[in-house]
Design brief:
This protein is of the alpha/beta class. It has a single domain, classed as HUPs (Rossmann fold). Helices cover about 25% and strands about 25% of the residues. It contains six helices and eleven strands. A nine-stranded mixed β-sheet has the order 9-8-7-10-6-1-4-5-11, sandwiched between helices. Helix 2 crosses helix 5 and helix 3 crosses helix 4. It is globular, with a radius of gyration of 22 Å. About 35% of the residues are buried.
Amino acid sequence: MKIIACVKQVPGTSEVEIDPVTGAMKRDTVAGKLNPYDLFSLETALSLAEQTNGTVRTLSMGPPQAAAALKETLWMGAESAVLLSDRKFGGADVAATSLALSYGIREMGDYDLILCGKQTTDGDTAQVGPELAEKLGIEHAANVTKVLDVTDHDITVEIDLDDAVEVLKMHLPCLLTVNKDANTPRLPSYVKKREMDGKEEIRVITFADIKNADENKLGLKGSPTQVERIFPPDKNKEKEMLRGDKEQLSGELYRILSERKFV
């Protein structure tokens, strides 16, 4: 089975800078980490590859430093990695991101299965995976919690619908977004990291490498969603200590909540 796992480097801190003009996050000014949700989809990919004697390739889009996240996937067991990196991809919303990823996947060649994390911790839209499947014209399922069976032609999965669990059988190739309850991700191999010792090969695909790509549909220029305003939430450090027995405390709490119209 030929598997492609899409991953993303996200900010490693909540202290990020926002471009005041474009509203886009300045990703080149903050330390990054591998998106936590992608760890569960990557573990699913590696486990399926072990079961089917298959291969796992990873794909990401971002600035040059996003290669660090791809190196981690190689230490975990991926066989190769591709980075989509170009200024023309920058500032992309969900639509432009999924289109760019679809270009990258077509450049990578044949595949049987594409796996994505349920969402990212910076955007939290949970829309890139399904939109990517639409761009590629393949079936998809979201919130996958378990792979029940896989053959040369189809895959059977269990998906979480919040109020129900559904079992779905899909034809290959298809795309799955994996929920955090699916598994326990493995750690990067220290042995693999030492063996590679900075020699990890990351294939970089730029806009110029993509055939028939429409620049007007990529990056900030091709994003129909525009950020109107973004700001950090106000921090309130005021506190009030209450003392007394349970009757006094409950009465005082009720008074405060009533004054502030919470009850």
